[in-house]
Design goal:
Oligomer: single chain
Order of helices and strands: EHHEEEHEHEE
Number of strands: 7
Strand content: 35-45%
Strand order of the largest sheet: 1-2-3-4-5-7-6
Length: 152
């Protein structure tokens, strides 16, 4: 079984918005419907929302941000993982790593050399997951979240 990414379409929209993380993680990641709304209000090409599908099962959702104006002043442009929602019951099976690898591949395809991510700090957050994948804290915060970067 090899997971794959699928675009969110009218056909799979209900499945997409039905993805739920574990209850103890709900405070740390926005629901898929909010992510899709955010993707809609940004200029075309900024948000890259995708479903993570394994055979016929939708197991998660990711959304990348591509070449955004990080500080809003034109000084720094970044790309990275904006959202990662692995469904309750599907975690620990490699889908999160697959998601990060997929976003990294897309950023590389577009000529990028770094992948950024933010996470809620704390014992129940995803910090250890990201650090195990090679992200390093860069000393910044964004909206109260830790900023990490992975060199590609």
């Amino acid at each position: 079984m090899t997971p794959r990414l699928e675009e969110v379409t009218p056909r799979n929209f209900e499945t997409a918005v039905g993805i739920r993380v574990r209850p103890d993680q709900e405070h740390a990641v926005s629901p898929v419907v909010q992510s899709l709304a955010e993707a809609y209000v940004h200029p075309a090409g900024v948000a890259w929302p995708r479903l993570i599908v394994d055979e016929a099962r939708t197991v998660g959702f990711l959304m990348a941000f591509l070449d955004i104006d990080w500080y809003g002043d034109g000084s720094v442009r970044r790309s990275g993982l904006w959202r990662l929602n692995i469904a309750d019951g599907e975690q620990g099976k490699g889908y999160g790593r697959f998601a990060v690898d997929s976003v990294a591949a897309e950023i590389r395809r577009l000529g990028g050399t770094q992948l950024y991510v933010t996470w809620h700090p704390g014992p129940d957050g995803p910090e250890e997951f990201y650090l195990r994948l090679g992200f390093r804290r860069n000393g910044e915060t964004s909206g109260g979240q830790t900023v990490g970067v992975l060199e590609l």
